[in-house]
Fold these 3 entries.
Entry 1:
Amino acid sequence: MRWSTSRVALSLVLSLLLVPSFSHLDNDKVYAEQVTVSGHELEDGVTRPIYSYLDAIKETVFIQSELDSDENGEPDRIAIDIMRPKETEEGLKVPVIMEASPYYEKLGRGNESQVKDPDGSGTNEMFPLFYDNYFVPRGYAVVLLDMVGTNNSDGCPTTGGFEETESVKVVIEWLNGKGKAFDKEGNEVSADWSAGKVGMVGKSYDGTLANAVAATGVEGLETIVPIGAISSWYYYYRYEGIPFYRNGPSGLASRVTNSKRVRQCAPIHERIRVAADDETGNYNEFWDERNYYKDTGNVKASVFMIHGLNDYNVKANHFSKWWEALAENDIPRKLWLTQTGHVDPFDFRRAEWVQTLHRWFDYWLLDIENGIMDEPILDLETGPGEWETYSSWPSENSTFVRVRLAPGNESLPGTLTTGPVNGEAVQTFTDNPDQTDMQMVQNEFTVKEDRLIFLSPELQEDVRLSGVPEIDIRTVVDKENTNLTALIVDYGTDVRVDHQSSDEGIRTLSNRTCWGESSPTDSACYLETELTTIESPYEIVTHGWLSAKNRKSLEHPVFLEPGKNHRIKWETLPEDYVFKKGHRIGIVIAGSNKGRLLTDPNRAAFHVHLGKSLVELPIVGGRKALENALGETTPTTATEILSLVESLKEDGEFQNEEEARALTTHMAAVELYEKKGLGDKVAKHMNGFMLLLDQQRNNGLISNKGYYMLKEEAESLIESGP
């Protein structure tokens, strides 16, 4: 329960203040004046620094686990470094902000690659990043955990395996009074200073560990803040059956292992290499163990996610799969999406980030009602340094629009249309394993033998894409297997975030700003950064790849039958992007993508049936918005809706075939009346179709995607009139 009262100065009292809530007062005034937890004072609605950073207690503790990840017959001990206000020795209990990481010995954390022992003296003088400097004076403890097998922890890393998750879980349990821990001298110690509430934060591998342990449902983990974090290691090293490169998990495990134990852990690294199965690229038990979003039903912690839409290290499908699973399980959540690559918000939106993180931890770890959960759920960077807030992701107004791949004209090699494509047009291309994505998209008005390209007319209005686009082609291939690439491209000169630069959209400056309090060995001052931009004639908005043998299953390959017509469907990476007026939307279809993934040597030839091939674009405002931008209005026909029902049935969007059959029966009658020009009967049966569609949705018999696609098409047919 959360309580509020007018602000008073607090001494170190040890009881919780429980006073009546001023629910009828102005919210901003209540948030700014309240005090809620003993030992913490508020100013402008957030905890203020009242504890000495210089006097804070620093200690290294080793938590006993039941792991034996290095198989030496001894249980692994997990090392943590703790910083907490000295008043915790006098009875003050504080919540914990924890960052678990494999990078505290080498590689380092943050833009300045900070490690715990920068001078190699054997003493951890440094607490990397600003969390200790900023939050310890505000009445938090900060815990930096060495992941199993790294730095001062025992054992061997397993690249996302059970052992790594367990090494974090045992620490959270110890902070909640369970298990045993020892100091450097071997004396048993307890966390009697801990309030039992833990919040985890971290970028990349660190945020991945937060996702992993949250998926166990461990008690005491109240919130996580994963930044550019992995939600499934399969999708870190693979995309729909294609490895990005070889020996990834084993190589990473070796790279982060404690320097003195790399040789000892070599047999574990070799087992990882074999189990990952680079040869096939398939999903197996090894990868299933490292899939966290499938276990979202266990999550009890709130989640504040930050991700780069142009992050091609931890790609954007990591946030979208985790985000969708969290939504299905009603987990409290918040999201920032940026146009940068794999960059920490401390380096692309520093002041707003520190303020927001401060309020987030105050709310979830100290029960301070500051209104953060009443604010829009999404902060979205819509242009370089330009941010908008929204109530959902994807947009609640986003609907999948089927855009068909159509033949070219006198100026374009291929076109895009929302209407039907007459005839049996076919375009061909051959996989070129040496082709990069830049080569795929350049010279957009030119026919090339190793790619197909389809362009919209110049847009008459802005178009916002929000969600996960899907590619759906009908093709004949002359080989049993091949790679496929799809690119969605914005053709039009504009100033954009330079996310393809080495710093992925930021530049490090020479001046520093300070965030918290410093000590002689640990500064709170960090080099400033600025956003970098580039003027470019096009932008690859998103990519999607597929190994054709995995088109039906990642676990059980189904090879193509050469010469047979196949339907091949796959997703691109998620995106939220505005195509501006005057620009063109481009769709590129090709084979292998050199530089992004391992290429296929088959050089397969594709014969793509246009009209039957399409992309499903999640467009804000749906078909009407896209058609207004394209300058075309194509009335929907009953035949098109019948085709859509069949496609949705193939994709499993109905609970069973009976629902699809019921809709097909309705539409078959409409199609007959439509051909006879009986407009009144078309209208009557379409109203019945809409009622049936609503019933199926209300009873959970059709997916949301299928419902909204059919609803929009049906409304279009009804509006076209007799």
Note: Confidence is low (pLDDT under 50) at residues 1-36.
Entry 2:
Amino acid sequence: MIKSLIDKILGKDQARKHPGTKGGRTGAKASRIPTGKRVDVPQSEHGIDPDLVDDRARRVVETLQDAGYEAYIVGGAVRDLLLGHRPKDFDVATNATPEQVKALFRRAFIIGRRFRIVHVVYGRGREHEVIEVSTFRAYLDPNAAEQVTGNEKTSRKELGDKSHVVDASGRVLRDNVWGPQDQDAARRDFTVNAMYYDPRTGVVVDYHGGIKDAKKRVLRMIGDPVVRYREDPVRIIRVVRFAAKLGFDIEPKTREPLKEMSELLSNVPQSRLFDEMIKLLQTGHAEASLAQLRRQGLDSGVFPILDAVFDEARRHPGREQFVQLALADTDRRVGEGKPVAPSFLLACLLWHDVLDHWKRNQAQGEPVFPALQTATDQVFDARIGDISGRGKLATDMREIWTMQPRFDRRVGNGPYTLVAQPRFRAGFDFLRLRANAGEADPELARWWEDFSLADEAEQRDLMDAARQQEISKRQQARPASAKGANVAGDDAGSAAKKRRRRRRKPAGEGGASGHGGGDAS
């Protein structure tokens, strides 16, 4: 009986129940659960400032605790609090099931298939905040999981009623088996992301020396790194992102398998890889993230978009300068707490691809704007492909790109119409980057900056100045002989125009009718 109990704890019992390809792998050795040892660290030792804790996250924790459940702020938020930073997002972990969590809050929604979690929503519109609540999960032996031959899409029917499933490479497709807190900590990726903070008592629960690693600024994988990368290859990218974002060193055992295991990323859905790429570029440390990718030998073959962009940039200095300016500008905006949109950065990364296609399309006889529309579609199909959210991305990127030739038109109603567009600011910021890179006139960018901020009278003055500037440019561009001939022929040309006007037939004699009467004499 004791032996059977031990077997069950180690997962051997499940492996016997699910032999062959549909369950546990026959003959495979059960994994030891790296549960660690619980240490409760008081506020006097860890030094977290309670004022940095979000009030709504605190409210979620206390609501769950008051209902009789365990609940803690968890993960990256605790890590950031230990480092003295105000976290951008707050996640909560509890022993309540998703259904029990949902029942406690007025606006709560169960989401996800791979991992079922609850979004507790406060506020509305742009000011709303989401607190993500997850249930403690069991650390299950991957050898005992049911196995499918496909992935999330191709094996959707097989996954429907299952709670713990892996694919042929060992990547976890379903993980919805609840368990105790020590196992929940063991199944998290890095020691610095596996701590639990109780804002009511001020205690941090630490199973894997996360506080020590945070102080030493080290990223260390919990358990065997090879096994953990196989469970979820996206952890390979997360190592790079956290190292760049936090300025942490990667512990040698965590770092060594990165390059070898990166081939597993080819089996991750493109939409998820795309999301990870966007996170890599929009955390405020894009340049550091790309440098870290190169340092780990992951700068080629992981993200096809980045491969194409940087291969081309290395061959064209002007293109490389523009991309670097775009990355630096994104990092600056994040550092200043300003919003950044993936569509803007992607529009920057792929702009020169669009330019190449645009010029080619015009050379084949297409008019300016249709040629640009076609170029946009060509680049989007080639570089972005079929991913979740493609429609919204395509719309925003197209608006940014198609605004660029419109900035050259500063007469008539065009400027008024352009500044009234919802995406004007994104299009203008793009123009400003082009000017900083030397591929657009800096004076043009300054003019649009002034025009967008001016009142109606100032806008008319700016348009008059722009019109005079265009006239001067045209006159300077004429050959000297043409200028002389034009000066001599100005009076004759004026007289000819008057004669043509006099020769027009009145409306009553078969001429074109007008609202204000004819020129009959």
Note: The CA atoms of residues 287 and 328 lie 7 Å apart.
Entry 3:
Amino acid sequence: MKLKIYLILSLIGMLLLTPGTAAYAADVLKPDPAFNTGICIIIAITIFFLLLLLLWLIRLARGLKEDEAARERNGDKWIFRQINSLDSRQLDQLISRRNHRKKTINKAKGGNNGFTAVMVLLLVLSSLVTHAQTPAESKNVLTSPGMIIMLTLIFIPLVVTVFLIGLKIRNVAVKSRYSRVKKETRELAEAVDTDDAIYEEIIRRKQALDYHLTNNELAGTIEAEDSKGILLNVDEVHGPRFFASKRKAAHKHQADPKLVKLIMWYLGSAAFWLVLGTSVGEYIGIKFVSPYADHISWLSFGRLRPVHTNMVFWGWSSMAMLGLGYYVVSTVSNTVVYSIKRGYYSLVLMNAAIIIGSGMLMAGINNGGGEYREYIWPVMALFAGGIVVSLFNYIQTIAQRKTKEIYISNWYIVSAMMFLTVIVTVGYLPFYQDGLGETIVQGYYMHQAVGMWFMFFNLGLVYYFLPQQLNTPIYSYSLGILAFWSQILFYTLIGTHHFIFSSIPWWLQTVAIVGSMGMLIPVFSGTTNFLMTFRGNFNKIGRSYTLPFYIVGILFYFTGSTQGTAEAFRETNLIWHFTDFTVAHSHLTMYGIIAFMLWACIYTIVPRLTGNEPKQGLVGAHFWMALIGVLFYTIPLMIGGTLKGIAWRDGKPFIDGVVLMAPYWLWRAIGGSLMWASHLVFAWNMYVMFSGHKSDPDIRKEVFEKLDTIPVNAEI
């Protein structure tokens, strides 16, 4: 009853405070083009803490309600539940009490002076805010000293008040629980005194608790003849465990050594381009904070930015995907790769394209600045040639499969490679790229490269590696097929949503927006399929160093893809486009989805191919630095990009947006540094997996193989 009164009074106080605050905010907190970002952040943090306090209050109230309902749920069995929860000493007390009845009644009394003071503070604050006069309008009203003082006087007491209310409710909850337990204990003691059946149950429970083994039940009394005992190779922990114990990787698979070597070359090249490409990205990210770091044309932002993007796109992501694809395509087809030699041809062509293309970009030789197609056509022809060689290799491998069906992974992988050949062809043929045609082709090329090459290929990899890692079949093959065809239908239409309000025909812009909405179908169906595959297996995440990469990639797949749909609408595009929000979005997808999924697959399969696995602590360091880094990178850029877009909409000069972004670019540099450092850890883990020492099972296997060929008295 006390709790209900306190809650009612608290709500009355908050309601009295709310109208005054709302009226004040309606007059003062008007949209102001010159608003202060720091004040907005402080207000947001304050509201966040208020929400946390509210959740705390709700949790306390719910706990009280559950305590009150517990007795009713248990019914007549509550006495026996109480008996089973008692220890031997407490049972002794009940037994002795039956012979020596003693009653002790303690009533908890607590005043409400503190709560009354809190309510008085609430009423005073509400009266102050309600009767506050509206200050004169000012262009910088939120940055004025008076406003800062007023906000401080409002928010600090508000937070303190809610916190004090929470403490009061917590004390009420503690007293209520104490009273309930004391009441139940007293009723139990009276039942033991008056009911012989309950007393006999107490005796039986006491005997059960006092029973002790003789320690000879399993061993017997005869001395063991085995001097070594049963336990062997027992490891003792002499220090504290700083890292959670993870399961070891599966034993080394019996794979074709030539195929393993080919895959390692692809993954090794990918890791090299990841470190080098993100080192370039780290440097140009720092230049946002220190723009006068150099005055060399080859190191200018305009030249290094495409070097960074193309190196991580075509070098890291594409090569890692192809290397993993050689394993998946042959494994799910239950056959060998059609031609290992063709795999090396593809590897050489792709590496040559990236080396030559990067050098040309730094020298200022490019394709006119089209995003993600800065390589000139001869360079991209080399890369496309490598893709075509591997595509025919994959198709011929699938054609000689030993299974009747084609598993869904091969659907996604082969389709992605077919789409890439189409994308490159459309993007580089020149005869229809005049005027607006070039803009339309640019939107098609850029977006299809992300969605129909990187995303499509990675989904195919996850459809194999995730069920294999969970030891659980994919939840729904039908959902996978739905996602497959719906992504082909809708994603190929959405490229021009990057050119809303441009000279492109209005109907074509509308088609792109409709296609972006349609992309919710494959995203929702794919995410549901992956999460339902996790169903019943979420407990495995804490014991695995690969599953966290999968779950983060899946969550980013959902959030990043739906964010892309939200960006496509005309209202949001008007604010977010051409701001740093799109930079955050591209990293949320290409890094949060593609990179995390690739890392998950690499950490899954490489230890099984080489027999060597990295230090689990270093894998954890890689995961957390990459995750925290991408969050530090994307969230500030999304906030800053939104504020910049609003400032532009309100007619602010461009330079004001540059000044506004300064602190957010600092966070970008910090997050990028964490991401780059995680790549160094990943490169070391790759080195360990590639060139680590042979494991004990491998050495033991070799020794046993020599036993049949070596004379008995010879040394092994």
Note: Confidence is low (pLDDT under 50) at residues 1-38, 102-139, 712-716.
